[in-house]
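Exercise 3.2. Students should predict the tertiary structure of the chain below and write it as structure tokens, then compare their answer with the key that follows.

Predict this chain's 3D structure.
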Amino acid sequence: MIRTIASWFRKERSFFFMISAVSWQVLFFIVPLLLVLSLSLFTDNFNGITLRYFREVWYLPQFFIILRSIGLATATGLITLLIAYPVAYFITFRIRRYKFIFLFLLMLPFLINLLVQVYSWFFVLEIGGFLNTVLLFFGILKEPIHFLDNYGVIYVVMVHIYLPFMIMPLYSILEKLDYRLIEASYDLGASPIRTFTHVIFPLTMSGVRTGFFMVFVTSFGEYIIPTLIGGNKRFFVGTLIAEYFFIGKDWHAGAAFICISIMLLLLFSLLYYFILRKLTVRSC
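Answer key:
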């Protein structure tokens, strides 16, 4: 009996190791998602199903807010990709010694609280901050400028915060790339640009997709950066959800808005997936 149990455990070892990951997904993703869906569909006393809460949030300004968040997430993903790819390439192929130092510097933002990182920008961008002080010192400005509370600074801080999420997947896939393929491309007479577009980029497209969607999906519902840096004057998905739940106390309408936001997020994610897939096919 004991031998039978032991042999069965050895055969199903991977299943037992997977239980913790599956439990985490169920408790912190599936259950909250089902709770939000039930709040959006059921009445206050959970006596029946209704679409009233979807009708309450189904009007044009809400969609403009969702599209604004999608634009913010898309721009953040593209800008971080343009910055992260050269950085990951440089660390992978140009640094031989002390590579662990650069990797540690990339991981360092994950050790710092997000609020601390965002608030540090106040010391740089406020009227009496570092940036105004430098510009005034060199005579570029005659009086300080209020850099905060605008879209531009929101994009800057978003790129700063989410850049490591793009660099790490790109570095991981570039590290696995067989450098002999690049050398073979050069030996066959291909230029550096042609080698990149026809060899390096297609082979690292999985890392591009992973990094882009990590940044795109997580930045879509960003709340802290638009609220603190944008002055809480520009509504995005995260700020509007906070308005529904914490200020308006309308949990059902808030849950319906979350469901609509998720559906549009999935549609745009599928669109971007097919675009990236087509880019891969064309570059091969």
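Discussion points: The mean pLDDT is 85. The chain is about 75% helix and 0% strand.
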